Fold each of these.
Amino acid sequence: MKIKSIRGSIKYNGTVYEEGDIFEIEDTDFSQLQENIEIVEDNLEDEQTYSNDEVMDIELDEVDLNSFNISTLKKIAKEKDIKLSDKMTKQEIINAIESNGK
Protein backbone atom coordinates (compact mmCIF):
# COMPACT_ATOMS: atom_id res chain seq x y z
CA MET A 1 0.00 0.00 0.00
CA LYS A 2 1.11 3.57 -0.59
CA ILE A 3 1.29 5.75 2.49
CA LYS A 4 2.27 9.28 3.41
CA SER A 5 4.28 10.16 6.50
CA ILE A 6 2.21 12.68 8.50
CA ARG A 7 4.03 12.87 11.83
CA GLY A 8 7.79 13.30 11.53
CA SER A 9 10.24 11.06 9.76
CA ILE A 10 9.89 7.30 9.51
CA LYS A 11 12.64 4.74 8.97
CA TYR A 12 11.33 1.84 6.92
CA ASN A 13 13.41 -0.91 5.28
CA GLY A 14 16.63 1.05 5.79
CA THR A 15 15.36 4.30 4.24
CA VAL A 16 14.39 7.43 6.18
CA TYR A 17 11.24 9.11 4.87
CA GLU A 18 10.55 12.70 5.89
CA GLU A 19 7.14 14.08 6.84
CA GLY A 20 5.06 14.41 3.67
CA ASP A 21 6.96 11.71 1.76
CA ILE A 22 4.87 9.08 -0.02
CA PHE A 23 6.19 5.52 -0.15
CA GLU A 24 5.14 1.87 -0.37
CA ILE A 25 4.88 -0.48 2.60
CA GLU A 26 3.78 -4.07 3.02
CA ASP A 27 0.19 -4.41 4.25
CA THR A 28 1.48 -6.45 7.20
CA ASP A 29 3.53 -3.46 8.44
CA PHE A 30 0.55 -1.10 8.59
CA SER A 31 -0.29 -1.71 12.26
CA GLN A 32 3.22 -0.72 13.37
CA LEU A 33 3.13 2.57 11.45
CA GLN A 34 -0.55 3.55 11.57
CA GLU A 35 -0.16 6.36 14.12
CA ASN A 36 2.32 8.22 11.90
CA ILE A 37 0.92 7.66 8.41
CA GLU A 38 -2.02 8.28 6.16
CA ILE A 39 -3.03 5.81 3.46
CA VAL A 40 -2.68 7.24 -0.03
CA GLU A 41 -3.51 4.10 -2.01
CA ASP A 42 -4.72 0.89 -0.45
CA ASN A 43 -4.31 -2.25 -2.48
CA LEU A 44 -6.44 -4.44 -0.26
CA GLU A 45 -8.82 -6.22 -2.58
CA ASP A 46 -11.48 -7.04 0.00
CA GLU A 47 -12.41 -3.42 0.65
CA GLN A 48 -15.76 -2.39 -0.72
CA THR A 49 -17.41 0.88 -1.61
CA TYR A 50 -21.02 1.57 -0.75
CA SER A 51 -23.66 4.02 -1.92
CA ASN A 52 -25.18 6.49 0.55
CA ASP A 53 -28.32 4.33 0.81
CA GLU A 54 -26.27 1.24 1.60
CA VAL A 55 -24.29 3.18 4.24
CA MET A 56 -27.55 4.08 6.01
CA ASP A 57 -28.44 0.39 6.29
CA ILE A 58 -25.11 -0.72 7.81
CA GLU A 59 -25.38 -2.04 11.35
CA LEU A 60 -22.06 -1.11 12.95
CA ASP A 61 -22.20 -4.01 15.40
CA GLU A 62 -22.38 -6.50 12.53
CA VAL A 63 -19.44 -5.37 10.36
CA ASP A 64 -15.68 -5.10 10.54
CA LEU A 65 -14.99 -1.41 9.93
CA ASN A 66 -11.43 -2.27 8.82
CA SER A 67 -12.92 -3.86 5.70
CA PHE A 68 -14.18 -0.46 4.46
CA ASN A 69 -12.10 2.04 2.53
CA ILE A 70 -11.61 5.57 3.87
CA SER A 71 -14.24 7.18 1.64
CA THR A 72 -16.89 4.72 2.84
CA LEU A 73 -15.87 5.26 6.47
CA LYS A 74 -16.27 9.02 5.93
CA LYS A 75 -19.74 8.41 4.46
CA ILE A 76 -20.67 6.32 7.50
CA ALA A 77 -19.42 9.04 9.85
CA LYS A 78 -21.34 11.73 7.95
CA GLU A 79 -24.56 9.70 8.00
CA LYS A 80 -24.12 9.08 11.74
CA ASP A 81 -23.39 12.81 12.39
CA ILE A 82 -19.84 12.14 13.55
CA LYS A 83 -17.44 15.06 13.10
CA LEU A 84 -14.07 14.16 11.53
CA SER A 85 -10.98 16.25 10.90
CA ASP A 86 -9.41 16.25 7.44
CA LYS A 87 -6.13 14.70 8.62
CA MET A 88 -7.55 11.70 10.46
CA THR A 89 -6.06 8.31 9.64
CA LYS A 90 -8.24 5.33 8.79
CA GLN A 91 -7.79 3.96 12.30
CA GLU A 92 -8.73 7.31 13.89
CA ILE A 93 -11.92 7.42 11.80
CA ILE A 94 -12.77 3.86 12.85
CA ASN A 95 -12.15 4.75 16.51
CA ALA A 96 -14.43 7.81 16.21
CA ILE A 97 -17.22 5.73 14.62
CA GLU A 98 -16.88 2.97 17.21
CA SER A 99 -16.82 5.35 20.18
CA ASN A 100 -19.90 7.17 18.86
CA GLY A 101 -21.79 3.92 18.35
CA LYS A 102 -21.55 2.95 22.02
Amino acid sequence: MQNFSQETFVFQHEELLNIWEECGRKSDVVFEWVIKKIKNNELSLEKKDDIRKKIRNLFSYVTKKLSNCNRSLKRFKEKHATWISATAVISISDKDYEKPCSSKIGRPQVNYTCAKDRMKRKLANDLSSEQDHNTDLMVHATKISARKSNNKDLTFVLKHITSSPTRPNFRRDRTRVIDVQTSTA
Protein backbone atom coordinates (compact mmCIF):
# COMPACT_ATOMS: atom_id res chain seq x y z
CA MET A 1 0.00 0.00 0.00
CA GLN A 2 1.24 3.49 -0.90
CA ASN A 3 -0.09 6.89 0.13
CA PHE A 4 0.02 9.72 -2.38
CA SER A 5 -1.79 12.02 -0.02
CA GLN A 6 -4.13 11.75 2.92
CA GLU A 7 -7.03 11.53 0.48
CA THR A 8 -5.68 8.90 -1.95
CA PHE A 9 -4.59 5.35 -1.19
CA VAL A 10 -2.97 2.94 -3.65
CA PHE A 11 -3.14 -0.83 -3.21
CA GLN A 12 -1.38 -3.43 -5.33
CA HIS A 13 -3.74 -5.86 -7.05
CA GLU A 14 -1.49 -8.72 -6.00
CA GLU A 15 -1.75 -7.71 -2.34
CA LEU A 16 -5.55 -7.53 -2.51
CA LEU A 17 -5.70 -10.83 -4.41
CA ASN A 18 -3.61 -12.61 -1.75
CA ILE A 19 -5.87 -11.33 1.04
CA TRP A 20 -8.94 -12.37 -0.96
CA GLU A 21 -7.53 -15.87 -1.38
CA GLU A 22 -6.53 -16.23 2.29
CA CYS A 23 -10.00 -15.18 3.48
CA GLY A 24 -11.94 -17.72 1.44
CA ARG A 25 -12.46 -15.50 -1.62
CA LYS A 26 -14.75 -13.00 0.11
CA SER A 27 -14.66 -9.40 -1.07
CA ASP A 28 -16.24 -8.10 2.15
CA VAL A 29 -13.20 -9.24 4.13
CA VAL A 30 -10.94 -7.36 1.72
CA PHE A 31 -13.18 -4.30 2.14
CA GLU A 32 -12.75 -4.44 5.94
CA TRP A 33 -8.97 -4.81 5.50
CA VAL A 34 -8.85 -1.76 3.23
CA ILE A 35 -10.90 0.30 5.70
CA LYS A 36 -8.45 -0.66 8.49
CA LYS A 37 -5.50 0.38 6.30
CA ILE A 38 -7.10 3.73 5.55
CA LYS A 39 -7.48 4.34 9.31
CA ASN A 40 -10.15 6.96 8.84
CA ASN A 41 -13.05 6.51 11.23
CA GLU A 42 -14.93 9.48 9.83
CA LEU A 43 -15.75 8.00 6.44
CA SER A 44 -19.31 8.66 5.40
CA LEU A 45 -21.60 5.86 4.26
CA GLU A 46 -21.37 7.13 0.68
CA LYS A 47 -17.58 6.87 0.73
CA LYS A 48 -17.68 3.40 2.26
CA ASP A 49 -20.21 2.27 -0.36
CA ASP A 50 -17.98 3.65 -3.09
CA ILE A 51 -14.95 1.77 -1.73
CA ARG A 52 -17.03 -1.42 -1.37
CA LYS A 53 -18.22 -1.05 -4.97
CA LYS A 54 -14.64 -0.64 -6.26
CA ILE A 55 -13.50 -3.75 -4.41
CA ARG A 56 -16.48 -5.78 -5.62
CA ASN A 57 -15.81 -4.68 -9.20
CA LEU A 58 -12.18 -5.67 -8.78
CA PHE A 59 -13.06 -9.17 -7.62
CA SER A 60 -15.89 -9.48 -10.10
CA TYR A 61 -13.22 -9.17 -12.77
CA VAL A 62 -11.10 -11.78 -10.97
CA THR A 63 -13.92 -14.33 -10.67
CA LYS A 64 -14.90 -13.83 -14.30
CA LYS A 65 -11.36 -14.36 -15.54
CA LEU A 66 -10.69 -17.12 -13.00
CA SER A 67 -13.33 -19.33 -14.62
CA ASN A 68 -11.33 -19.15 -17.87
CA CYS A 69 -8.27 -20.39 -15.94
CA ASN A 70 -10.07 -23.49 -14.61
CA ARG A 71 -10.45 -21.80 -11.21
CA SER A 72 -6.71 -22.05 -10.65
CA LEU A 73 -5.26 -18.96 -9.01
CA LYS A 74 -1.76 -19.98 -10.12
CA ARG A 75 -2.88 -19.99 -13.78
CA PHE A 76 -4.71 -16.71 -13.27
CA LYS A 77 -1.51 -15.08 -11.94
CA GLU A 78 0.48 -16.35 -14.92
CA LYS A 79 -2.07 -15.37 -17.54
CA HIS A 80 -2.95 -11.97 -16.08
CA ALA A 81 0.48 -10.84 -14.88
CA THR A 82 -0.03 -7.28 -16.17
CA TRP A 83 -3.27 -6.92 -14.24
CA ILE A 84 -1.67 -8.27 -11.07
CA SER A 85 1.19 -5.76 -11.33
CA ALA A 86 -1.31 -2.88 -11.59
CA THR A 87 -2.70 -0.88 -8.69
CA ALA A 88 -6.10 0.05 -7.31
CA VAL A 89 -6.44 3.72 -6.37
CA ILE A 90 -8.97 4.60 -3.69
CA SER A 91 -9.77 8.24 -3.12
CA ILE A 92 -11.56 9.43 0.00
CA SER A 93 -11.63 13.13 -0.79
CA ASP A 94 -14.83 15.11 -0.32
CA LYS A 95 -14.56 16.51 -3.84
CA ASP A 96 -15.77 13.22 -5.30
CA TYR A 97 -18.93 13.26 -3.22
CA GLU A 98 -20.16 16.80 -3.62
CA LYS A 99 -23.40 16.83 -5.52
CA PRO A 100 -24.95 20.07 -6.70
CA CYS A 101 -28.26 20.78 -5.00
CA SER A 102 -29.75 22.31 -8.12
CA SER A 103 -29.42 19.19 -10.26
CA LYS A 104 -32.75 17.68 -11.16
CA ILE A 105 -33.45 14.05 -11.74
CA GLY A 106 -35.25 12.98 -14.88
CA ARG A 107 -35.58 14.34 -18.37
CA PRO A 108 -34.58 17.94 -19.04
CA GLN A 109 -37.34 20.46 -19.59
CA VAL A 110 -38.03 21.29 -23.24
CA ASN A 111 -39.12 24.77 -24.24
CA TYR A 112 -42.16 25.24 -26.44
CA THR A 113 -40.36 26.09 -29.68
CA CYS A 114 -38.18 22.94 -29.57
CA ALA A 115 -40.99 20.61 -28.52
CA LYS A 116 -42.84 18.19 -30.78
CA ASP A 117 -46.60 18.48 -31.45
CA ARG A 118 -47.68 16.25 -28.59
CA MET A 119 -45.54 18.14 -26.08
CA LYS A 120 -46.82 21.47 -27.40
CA ARG A 121 -50.40 20.32 -26.82
CA LYS A 122 -49.48 19.22 -23.30
CA LEU A 123 -47.74 22.51 -22.49
CA ALA A 124 -50.69 24.50 -23.86
CA ASN A 125 -53.12 22.36 -21.87
CA ASP A 126 -51.08 22.81 -18.68
CA LEU A 127 -50.97 26.57 -19.17
CA SER A 128 -54.70 26.67 -19.84
CA SER A 129 -55.39 24.54 -16.77
CA GLU A 130 -53.32 26.85 -14.58
CA GLN A 131 -55.52 29.76 -15.65
CA ASP A 132 -58.79 27.85 -15.24
CA HIS A 133 -59.27 27.68 -19.03
CA ASN A 134 -59.92 31.44 -19.24
CA THR A 135 -60.00 32.06 -23.02
CA ASP A 136 -60.11 35.88 -22.73
CA LEU A 137 -56.90 35.80 -20.71
CA MET A 138 -55.24 33.42 -23.18
CA VAL A 139 -56.21 35.56 -26.19
CA HIS A 140 -55.01 38.69 -24.42
CA ALA A 141 -51.70 37.01 -23.55
CA THR A 142 -51.35 35.87 -27.18
CA LYS A 143 -52.00 39.42 -28.36
CA ILE A 144 -49.32 40.83 -26.05
CA SER A 145 -46.87 38.12 -27.04
CA ALA A 146 -47.48 38.76 -30.75
CA ARG A 147 -46.96 42.50 -30.22
CA LYS A 148 -43.70 41.94 -28.27
CA SER A 149 -42.36 39.54 -30.90
CA ASN A 150 -43.18 42.10 -33.62
CA ASN A 151 -45.61 39.77 -35.41
CA LYS A 152 -47.78 42.50 -36.96
CA ASP A 153 -50.15 40.27 -38.93
CA LEU A 154 -51.12 38.19 -35.92
CA THR A 155 -51.43 41.31 -33.77
CA PHE A 156 -53.80 42.85 -36.34
CA VAL A 157 -55.99 39.75 -36.56
CA LEU A 158 -56.18 39.30 -32.78
CA LYS A 159 -56.96 42.97 -32.27
CA HIS A 160 -59.88 42.89 -34.66
CA ILE A 161 -61.21 39.57 -33.45
CA THR A 162 -61.33 40.68 -29.82
CA SER A 163 -62.57 44.23 -30.42
CA SER A 164 -65.16 43.56 -33.13
CA PRO A 165 -68.73 42.94 -31.94
CA THR A 166 -69.23 40.75 -35.02
CA ARG A 167 -66.26 38.47 -34.40
CA PRO A 168 -67.74 35.42 -36.14
CA ASN A 169 -68.45 37.44 -39.29
CA PHE A 170 -64.87 38.76 -39.31
CA ARG A 171 -63.53 35.21 -39.00
CA ARG A 172 -65.78 33.95 -41.78
CA ASP A 173 -64.85 36.85 -44.05
CA ARG A 174 -61.12 36.26 -43.49
CA THR A 175 -61.38 32.55 -44.15
CA ARG A 176 -63.38 33.19 -47.34
CA VAL A 177 -60.69 35.57 -48.59
CA ILE A 178 -58.01 32.96 -47.89
CA ASP A 179 -60.07 30.20 -49.56
CA VAL A 180 -60.65 32.38 -52.64
CA GLN A 181 -56.94 33.21 -52.89
CA THR A 182 -55.90 29.57 -52.62
CA SER A 183 -58.53 28.35 -55.11
CA THR A 184 -57.53 30.91 -57.77
CA ALA A 185 -53.83 30.21 -57.37
Amino acid sequence: MLIISIDPGTVNLGYYVGRVGYCRGGECDENRVEHIQWGTIDLAKRVEGKAKPSSTDICKVILDEFIPSLPTDEHILVLVESQMYSRMQLVAHTFWTYYYPRCVMVSPRGVKHRLGPLETCGGHDQNKKQMVDLMLERRYIDVKGFSKDHMSILHNAVDAYAMALDYWLTNNYLKTYNVTSLSLPLRTEI
Protein backbone atom coordinates (compact mmCIF):
# COMPACT_ATOMS: atom_id res chain seq x y z
CA MET A 1 0.00 0.00 0.00
CA LEU A 2 1.26 3.42 -0.99
CA ILE A 3 0.70 6.21 1.53
CA ILE A 4 0.92 9.90 0.77
CA SER A 5 0.80 12.00 3.90
CA ILE A 6 0.25 15.76 3.75
CA ASP A 7 0.76 18.52 6.33
CA PRO A 8 -1.06 21.32 4.47
CA GLY A 9 0.44 24.76 4.20
CA THR A 10 0.85 27.55 1.68
CA VAL A 11 4.40 28.44 2.63
CA ASN A 12 5.59 25.09 3.97
CA LEU A 13 3.51 22.15 2.76
CA GLY A 14 5.11 19.06 4.26
CA TYR A 15 4.66 15.67 2.63
CA TYR A 16 5.84 12.08 2.87
CA VAL A 17 5.45 9.18 0.43
CA GLY A 18 6.12 5.60 1.49
CA ARG A 19 5.00 2.05 0.87
CA VAL A 20 4.36 -0.82 3.25
CA GLY A 21 5.58 -4.09 1.79
CA TYR A 22 9.25 -3.56 1.00
CA CYS A 23 10.64 -5.76 -1.79
CA ARG A 24 14.29 -6.15 -2.74
CA GLY A 25 16.03 -8.82 -4.79
CA GLY A 26 12.84 -10.84 -5.28
CA GLU A 27 12.12 -11.11 -1.55
CA CYS A 28 9.30 -9.16 0.05
CA ASP A 29 8.63 -8.29 3.66
CA GLU A 30 5.06 -7.11 4.16
CA ASN A 31 5.99 -5.50 7.47
CA ARG A 32 8.70 -3.16 6.20
CA VAL A 33 8.50 0.36 4.87
CA GLU A 34 10.02 1.61 1.65
CA HIS A 35 10.64 5.36 2.02
CA ILE A 36 10.08 6.93 -1.41
CA GLN A 37 10.29 10.70 -0.88
CA TRP A 38 9.55 13.48 1.57
CA GLY A 39 9.93 17.20 1.61
CA THR A 40 8.58 20.66 2.17
CA ILE A 41 7.29 22.73 -0.73
CA ASP A 42 6.70 26.50 -0.74
CA LEU A 43 3.57 26.58 -2.88
CA ALA A 44 3.27 30.38 -2.74
CA LYS A 45 6.62 30.68 -4.59
CA ARG A 46 5.15 28.62 -7.45
CA VAL A 47 2.55 31.32 -8.20
CA GLU A 48 4.12 33.85 -10.53
CA GLY A 49 3.45 37.56 -10.45
CA LYS A 50 1.70 37.77 -7.08
CA ALA A 51 3.28 38.88 -3.82
CA LYS A 52 0.54 37.17 -1.79
CA PRO A 53 -1.24 34.50 -3.83
CA SER A 54 -4.88 33.69 -3.14
CA SER A 55 -6.04 30.32 -1.84
CA THR A 56 -7.41 29.62 -5.32
CA ASP A 57 -3.94 30.20 -6.82
CA ILE A 58 -2.41 27.82 -4.25
CA CYS A 59 -5.00 25.12 -4.94
CA LYS A 60 -4.35 25.44 -8.68
CA VAL A 61 -0.62 24.79 -8.07
CA ILE A 62 -1.53 21.74 -5.97
CA LEU A 63 -3.76 20.30 -8.70
CA ASP A 64 -1.65 21.25 -11.73
CA GLU A 65 1.90 20.76 -10.42
CA PHE A 66 2.22 19.08 -7.02
CA ILE A 67 -0.22 16.15 -7.26
CA PRO A 68 1.00 15.09 -10.74
CA SER A 69 4.58 15.01 -9.35
CA LEU A 70 3.65 12.38 -6.74
CA PRO A 71 3.81 8.62 -7.34
CA THR A 72 0.52 6.77 -7.73
CA ASP A 73 -0.68 3.22 -7.21
CA GLU A 74 -3.99 1.37 -7.34
CA HIS A 75 -3.64 0.72 -3.57
CA ILE A 76 -3.19 4.25 -2.29
CA LEU A 77 -4.20 6.00 0.90
CA VAL A 78 -3.80 9.74 1.42
CA LEU A 79 -3.57 11.14 4.95
CA VAL A 80 -4.19 14.87 5.34
CA GLU A 81 -3.74 16.75 8.61
CA SER A 82 -6.94 18.54 9.68
CA GLN A 83 -6.62 22.31 9.80
CA MET A 84 -8.18 25.04 11.96
CA TYR A 85 -7.85 28.09 9.72
CA SER A 86 -9.94 28.61 6.59
CA ARG A 87 -7.00 29.15 4.21
CA MET A 88 -5.36 25.91 5.37
CA GLN A 89 -8.71 24.09 5.36
CA LEU A 90 -9.06 24.93 1.68
CA VAL A 91 -5.62 23.47 0.98
CA ALA A 92 -6.46 20.33 3.01
CA HIS A 93 -9.82 19.89 1.29
CA THR A 94 -8.21 20.21 -2.14
CA PHE A 95 -6.34 16.97 -1.40
CA TRP A 96 -9.39 15.38 0.19
CA THR A 97 -11.57 16.17 -2.84
CA TYR A 98 -8.95 15.01 -5.37
CA TYR A 99 -8.22 11.69 -3.66
CA TYR A 100 -11.73 10.93 -2.32
CA PRO A 101 -12.62 8.19 -1.21
CA ARG A 102 -8.99 7.16 -0.55
CA CYS A 103 -8.31 10.16 1.68
CA VAL A 104 -8.48 10.36 5.47
CA MET A 105 -8.40 13.56 7.49
CA VAL A 106 -6.10 13.09 10.50
CA SER A 107 -6.12 14.86 13.87
CA PRO A 108 -2.62 16.21 14.57
CA ARG A 109 -3.19 16.07 18.33
CA GLY A 110 -4.16 12.37 18.11
CA VAL A 111 -0.96 11.54 16.21
CA LYS A 112 1.18 13.40 18.71
CA HIS A 113 -0.44 11.64 21.68
CA ARG A 114 -0.14 8.15 20.19
CA LEU A 115 3.49 8.59 19.14
CA GLY A 116 4.45 10.77 22.14
CA PRO A 117 2.98 11.42 24.47
CA LEU A 118 3.99 15.00 23.86
CA GLU A 119 3.21 18.02 25.96
CA THR A 120 0.97 20.21 23.84
CA CYS A 121 1.01 23.20 26.14
CA GLY A 122 3.64 24.99 24.05
CA GLY A 123 2.89 27.10 21.03
CA HIS A 124 2.83 25.91 17.42
CA ASP A 125 6.62 26.12 16.95
CA GLN A 126 7.30 24.34 20.25
CA ASN A 127 4.96 21.48 19.30
CA LYS A 128 6.71 21.09 15.93
CA LYS A 129 10.13 21.01 17.63
CA GLN A 130 8.90 18.38 20.12
CA MET A 131 7.81 16.10 17.25
CA VAL A 132 11.21 16.41 15.52
CA ASP A 133 12.98 15.66 18.82
CA LEU A 134 10.76 12.60 19.43
CA MET A 135 11.33 11.24 15.91
CA LEU A 136 15.10 11.73 16.30
CA GLU A 137 15.14 10.11 19.76
CA ARG A 138 13.30 7.03 18.49
CA ARG A 139 15.52 6.92 15.39
CA TYR A 140 12.55 7.17 13.05
CA ILE A 141 14.45 9.86 11.14
CA ASP A 142 18.11 10.56 10.49
CA VAL A 143 18.89 14.21 9.82
CA LYS A 144 22.67 14.20 9.72
CA GLY A 145 23.88 17.03 7.58
CA PHE A 146 20.87 19.24 8.26
CA SER A 147 21.80 22.74 9.24
CA LYS A 148 19.72 25.03 11.47
CA ASP A 149 18.41 26.62 8.26
CA HIS A 150 16.89 23.27 7.25
CA MET A 151 15.20 22.71 10.62
CA SER A 152 12.46 25.27 9.95
CA ILE A 153 11.40 23.43 6.77
CA LEU A 154 12.02 20.00 8.29
CA HIS A 155 9.22 20.36 10.88
CA ASN A 156 6.38 20.04 8.37
CA ALA A 157 7.89 17.08 6.57
CA VAL A 158 8.42 15.33 9.92
CA ASP A 159 4.75 15.90 10.81
CA ALA A 160 3.72 14.31 7.50
CA TYR A 161 5.97 11.29 8.15
CA ALA A 162 4.64 11.03 11.73
CA MET A 163 1.08 10.76 10.38
CA ALA A 164 2.04 7.87 8.08
CA LEU A 165 4.00 6.12 10.82
CA ASP A 166 1.10 6.53 13.26
CA TYR A 167 -1.34 5.08 10.70
CA TRP A 168 0.85 2.04 10.04
CA LEU A 169 1.49 1.34 13.73
CA THR A 170 -2.10 1.96 14.86
CA ASN A 171 -3.56 -0.27 12.14
CA ASN A 172 -1.04 -3.08 12.70
CA TYR A 173 0.68 -2.78 9.33
CA LEU A 174 4.01 -2.51 11.14
CA LYS A 175 5.70 -3.52 14.32
CA THR A 176 7.79 -0.77 15.92
CA TYR A 177 11.04 -2.70 15.48
CA ASN A 178 10.53 -2.88 11.70
CA VAL A 179 10.60 0.89 11.23
CA THR A 180 13.78 1.82 9.40
CA SER A 181 15.20 5.29 9.86
CA LEU A 182 14.12 7.79 7.22
CA SER A 183 17.31 9.29 5.83
CA LEU A 184 16.28 10.38 2.32
CA PRO A 185 17.29 13.85 1.15
CA LEU A 186 14.57 16.40 1.91
CA ARG A 187 13.03 17.72 -1.29
CA THR A 188 12.15 21.40 -1.48
CA GLU A 189 11.06 21.64 -5.14
CA ILE A 190 8.25 20.06 -7.15
Amino acid sequence: MSLRHKTHATDKVTVILRENQIGRHGRLVPVETGRVECWGRIQPSTTDEILGVATAGETQVLTMKNFLCRTFPGDSLSQVLDSNGMLYNIVGEPERFTSSRLTARTVVRLKQATQTKGV
Protein backbone atom coordinates (compact mmCIF):
# COMPACT_ATOMS: atom_id res chain seq x y z
CA MET A 1 0.00 0.00 0.00
CA SER A 2 1.39 3.38 -0.97
CA LEU A 3 1.53 6.50 1.20
CA ARG A 4 -1.40 7.99 -0.71
CA HIS A 5 -3.79 5.45 0.79
CA LYS A 6 -2.77 6.07 4.43
CA THR A 7 -5.17 8.84 5.39
CA HIS A 8 -5.51 8.28 9.16
CA ALA A 9 -9.26 8.64 8.65
CA THR A 10 -10.84 7.67 11.98
CA ASP A 11 -14.24 9.39 11.82
CA LYS A 12 -17.09 8.19 9.65
CA VAL A 13 -19.64 10.92 8.93
CA THR A 14 -22.76 11.18 6.82
CA VAL A 15 -22.85 14.12 4.43
CA ILE A 16 -26.41 15.34 3.85
CA LEU A 17 -26.51 16.74 0.33
CA ARG A 18 -28.92 19.65 -0.14
CA GLU A 19 -29.92 22.04 -2.91
CA ASN A 20 -32.02 25.19 -3.00
CA GLN A 21 -35.52 24.81 -4.38
CA ILE A 22 -38.38 27.28 -4.53
CA GLY A 23 -40.73 26.72 -1.58
CA ARG A 24 -44.45 27.36 -1.12
CA HIS A 25 -44.07 31.10 -0.63
CA GLY A 26 -41.63 31.65 -3.50
CA ARG A 27 -38.50 31.64 -1.32
CA LEU A 28 -35.47 29.42 -1.78
CA VAL A 29 -35.51 26.56 0.72
CA PRO A 30 -32.70 23.99 1.15
CA VAL A 31 -34.08 20.50 0.40
CA GLU A 32 -32.26 17.22 1.08
CA THR A 33 -31.32 15.38 -2.11
CA GLY A 34 -29.33 12.47 -0.70
CA ARG A 35 -26.85 11.16 1.87
CA VAL A 36 -23.28 9.99 1.37
CA GLU A 37 -20.93 8.40 3.90
CA CYS A 38 -17.44 9.85 4.10
CA TRP A 39 -14.30 8.97 6.10
CA GLY A 40 -12.02 11.65 7.55
CA ARG A 41 -10.88 13.30 10.79
CA ILE A 42 -12.79 15.79 12.92
CA GLN A 43 -10.47 18.19 14.73
CA PRO A 44 -11.15 21.24 16.90
CA SER A 45 -10.50 24.57 15.20
CA THR A 46 -7.67 26.81 16.30
CA THR A 47 -8.27 30.13 18.03
CA ASP A 48 -7.08 32.02 14.94
CA GLU A 49 -9.62 30.24 12.73
CA ILE A 50 -12.45 30.96 15.17
CA LEU A 51 -11.47 34.63 15.42
CA GLY A 52 -11.26 34.93 11.63
CA VAL A 53 -14.73 33.51 11.12
CA ALA A 54 -16.19 35.57 13.99
CA THR A 55 -14.66 38.74 12.52
CA ALA A 56 -16.37 37.96 9.21
CA GLY A 57 -19.75 38.17 10.94
CA GLU A 58 -20.53 34.50 11.64
CA THR A 59 -22.27 33.77 14.96
CA GLN A 60 -22.04 30.82 17.37
CA VAL A 61 -18.57 29.77 16.22
CA LEU A 62 -17.12 28.68 19.56
CA THR A 63 -18.05 25.08 18.78
CA MET A 64 -16.40 25.17 15.34
CA LYS A 65 -14.46 22.13 14.12
CA ASN A 66 -12.51 21.13 11.01
CA PHE A 67 -13.25 18.00 9.01
CA LEU A 68 -10.29 16.77 6.94
CA CYS A 69 -10.86 14.16 4.25
CA ARG A 70 -9.44 13.04 0.93
CA THR A 71 -12.48 14.20 -1.10
CA PHE A 72 -15.66 15.83 0.19
CA PRO A 73 -18.85 15.10 -1.77
CA GLY A 74 -20.78 18.15 -0.59
CA ASP A 75 -20.74 21.92 -0.92
CA SER A 76 -21.59 24.91 1.27
CA LEU A 77 -25.29 23.94 1.50
CA SER A 78 -24.57 20.44 2.78
CA GLN A 79 -24.73 19.34 6.40
CA VAL A 80 -22.59 16.80 8.25
CA LEU A 81 -23.92 14.22 10.71
CA ASP A 82 -21.24 12.53 12.84
CA SER A 83 -21.34 9.10 14.48
CA ASN A 84 -22.57 10.60 17.78
CA GLY A 85 -25.65 12.09 16.11
CA MET A 86 -24.33 15.67 16.18
CA LEU A 87 -25.44 17.78 13.22
CA TYR A 88 -23.07 20.41 11.77
CA ASN A 89 -23.57 23.19 9.22
CA ILE A 90 -20.75 24.06 6.84
CA VAL A 91 -19.12 27.48 7.23
CA GLY A 92 -17.99 28.88 3.88
CA GLU A 93 -16.88 26.73 0.97
CA PRO A 94 -14.87 23.52 1.50
CA GLU A 95 -11.18 24.20 0.83
CA ARG A 96 -9.82 21.72 -1.70
CA PHE A 97 -6.03 21.29 -1.85
CA THR A 98 -5.22 19.34 -5.01
CA SER A 99 -1.76 20.52 -6.02
CA SER A 100 -0.12 17.22 -5.05
CA ARG A 101 -1.59 13.71 -5.15
CA LEU A 102 0.30 12.84 -1.98
CA THR A 103 -1.10 15.67 0.12
CA ALA A 104 -4.47 16.15 -1.61
CA ARG A 105 -7.19 16.85 0.92
CA THR A 106 -10.33 18.83 1.59
CA VAL A 107 -10.78 20.92 4.74
CA VAL A 108 -14.37 21.65 5.74
CA ARG A 109 -15.17 24.08 8.56
CA LEU A 110 -18.12 22.88 10.61
CA LYS A 111 -20.37 24.80 12.99
CA GLN A 112 -22.49 22.83 15.46
CA ALA A 113 -26.20 23.00 14.54
CA THR A 114 -27.71 20.81 17.30
CA GLN A 115 -27.02 20.09 20.95
CA THR A 116 -26.81 16.58 22.32
CA LYS A 117 -29.44 15.88 24.95
CA GLY A 118 -28.53 14.20 28.23
CA VAL A 119 -30.10 10.85 29.03
